[in-house]
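YM 10:42: Agmatinase sequence, as discussed on the call
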Amino acid sequence: MIDPLERWRAHGEKPDYAGLLTYGGVPYTQDAAELVGFDVAIVGAPTDDLVSAHPGTRFGPRAIRAASCPAGPHLEAGVDAFEVLRVVDFGDAAVLPAEPVKTHEAIEALVGEVVDAGALPVILGGDHSIAEPDIRAVARRRGPVGLIHFDTHTDTGETVFGAALSHGTIMRRLVEQGWVDPARYVQIGLRGYWPGEAEFTWQHDRGITSFFMHDVREVGIRDVVSRAIGIAGPGPVFLSVDVDVLDPAFAPGTGTPEPGGMTSMDLLWACREIGARVELCGVDVVEVAPTQIGSADITALVADRIVREALTGVATRKLGSVR
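YM 10:58: structure's back
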């Protein structure tokens, strides 16, 4: 176990720009035996071999770690997730460029080690295809899961540009393979021009629930999230957040930006609320492409805060169960 604060321990904190780069400055290990006793393990999945538009998400995990802020109390919730939860950075999966099947196997194996140790896996992507090995690793051990999925797109294509394995097909694959319970699957933030009638017919026939951006606009994020939580219901729920659910003004660094999306404020609140109110079994944040022109670290910064808000919710839930 490596402690990034070791040389600064006497001072109680270190500058963000110094020392080993781990998520939020938490301890780092590559030894699965050292995961025991931790509540949360951060896993990187730096791959973009299966994108259908702009690449660059292979740099996402490193950028999110660099943008991550040190521990401290959430000013609204009054909870410091890093005090309530023991968090460790488990490093990156052994991805192999141009070998998406082997890359997915490596991601699934690493996430599986986290679940086996009793910790909550939080995966930093990477394109959205990583959700397939992420969720599969959890569902192999816990049975079919509920899914709350923030995205511009449904990712339920049968193929994308003729490819069955793509960041645009993984949700369909997860449902068809039995890893996600379609009756407990909710999509939030859909808009734009894809997918089409065939995909939505397939979803309707399986009981998948979709909330479009006009639903968020007309009834409000609080009502949409409340409905989503009710549909996901009791039992393990996976939270998957594609940053392109946000309007490009808030997340310009992503491969398939679509105007008219959510605000950061609404999405961050939603992730915290979901973390506090469901039995989270895993979280991934995907499609951060920090190399996109105009991105700077804006998109990585909001991705970090998505993770922090979800963990604040988990910590709030844990404190509530203790109290």
